Amino acid sequence: MLIGAVFEIAGNTMYFMGNSKWFLLASRLIAGVGAGAESVILAEISRVTTEAERTGILSTMIAIRQSGLLIGPGLNVFLRLANFKIGPFKVNKYTDPGAFMACLWTLELLLLVLFYTDLHKIKEQELEQERLINPVISSDTLSNQNPPTYDTVITGPNNYDVSADIEGIQSTTEYEKQISEVKTEEPVTKEKLSGAFFYKMYVREEIVTLLGVQFISLFSQVSLETMATPLSNTLLHWGELENSLMYCCAGVEIILVFILVRILSKHLKDRTMILMGCFLLAMANGWLMYVVPRAYNGK
Question: What molecular functions are annotated in GO for this chain (predicted)?
Answer without folding.
Answer: transmembrane transporter activity
